[in-house]
Amino acid sequence: MTKNTRFPEGFLWGGATAANQLEGGFGEGNKGLNIADVLPGGKERLKVLSEPGFDWEIDKNKYYYPNHLGIDFYHRYKEDIALFAEMGFKTYRLSIAWSRIFPNGDELEPNEEGLAFYDRVFDELAKYDIEPVVTLSHYEMPLNLVKNYGGWRNRELITFFERYVETVLNRYKDKVKYWLTFNEINSGFMMPIMGLGFAIQKEEDRYQPTFQALHHQFVASALAVNAAHRIIPGSQVGCMIIYAPVYSYDSNPENVMYAHEESRLFNNFCTDVQVRGKYPTFINRYFKEHDINIEMEDGDLELIKEGTVDFISLSYYMSRTERKEKTTDEIGQGNMVGGVKNPFLKASDWGWEIDPTGLRITLNELYDRYEVPLFVVENGLGAYDKVEEDGSIQDDYRIEYLREHINAVGEAIEDGVEVMGYTSWGCIDLVSASTGEMSKRYGFIYVDLDDEGNGTLERKKKKSFCWYKDVIATNGEKL
Ligand code: BGP
Description:
By secondary structure, the protein is an alpha/beta fold. The protein has helices spanning 19-22, 42-50, 65-69, 73-87, 98-101, 112-127, 143-147, 156-171, 192-196, 207-231, 253-276, 282-289, 300-306, 356-370, 396-414, 463-473, and strands at residues 12-16, 91-95, 131-137, 178-182, 236-242, 246-248, 311-315, 320-322, 346-347, 353-354, 374-378, 419-425, 445-447, 459-461. α10 (207-231) crosses α13 (300-306). The model has no long low-confidence stretch (mean pLDDT 95). It binds 6-O-phosphono-beta-D-galactopyranose (BGP). The site of 6-O-phosphono-beta-D-galactopyranose (BGP) has 14 residues, from loops.
């Protein structure tokens, strides 16, 4: 057992999911088509996410079962929430599918069937005293806004998003207190398709449209924060970032400076705007060097200043190791977030480097810079699981990963960092965002479904289920 950690009373233990990766219910309840509905699975998904030129058409010859079926939470939410309750969850992070509420995104009136679905989900959570944490936009927006408006590059999206946000805030004002604006807002740098709703057509298009789209999201996020505080007094709104601390490969000052610059851009740029309420000065040089000129309207900067978030939520999966000059061999050898291989770290089956100390570093870096509460809303190990003959799933590797990462959160708390909670990613197996497949599993709960869509959808408790239950029951003392 690792050293006791001192998690505060009321610490929000739980799990996290996203609508597009677990609900299914494709085409049900008047849901509109969204981004995730047209992304292919498997190797093709990675290609679409990383290479320019995606055209957003549903190709009828391709197999889109993963996102269309999800794990059928749309019909099985009661059973799933009962299992979360059995583990003792204090909180459950989920997202609302924008395309269930405004199927095309630009309607004036919301879709009642979509609203009613989330009422049922929140009521079910309330039965067990599980506090919902709701992401407003998690890699899913109505496809119409992508195809006919060009995604977040278009300023009109601010109005559509505001309407959607005000609708759900008013509807769920007695049921939801914690809200997150855009999932992993800084992932737009790596994959604008999911977060920003547009596909780069040529590599050189990456700069101006990305930062213009982010500006629109900053304004939309500030409007959402203000609306939440007005409509739901006492509510708390967080930004959501993917954080990967950047290490210099060695002590060469050139590499140290490079790692620092990369970290500032990737980890801090969006957070600086959303938490401090202003564009950081370091970005001016970057904008100049990449010929980026953001179009703003009068009042945007004031709004950004007023609508700062109450806390920072983050996902943490890996660190990143950087060297300014990389050999051709090294390029692409690092993590999903880039960089070069770190000789001190092992990696998951998908090459994501496992670094629990990196989480302690992350929490310290964020708290030192912003001094607002932090909420770890995603962390976990994607792994292949095997069902044994007796039906059990012995996922000791997952337990070990989570134990070390939760311990790192405890260490950070002892360092003086204010952490509100921890929700492990994919608490129930779901469709992977980067591969569109089921076989990359994160859950405490196994779902009988394979990459081709075969399976009974039956839920089974893995070994980690009982382990996590104990962690929560002892408020993190028994790891
Ligand atoms: C984050 C996303 C999630 C989730 C997770 C794991 O970036 O917010 O949606 O899927 O990563 O990634 P993957 O499913 O690709 O393993």
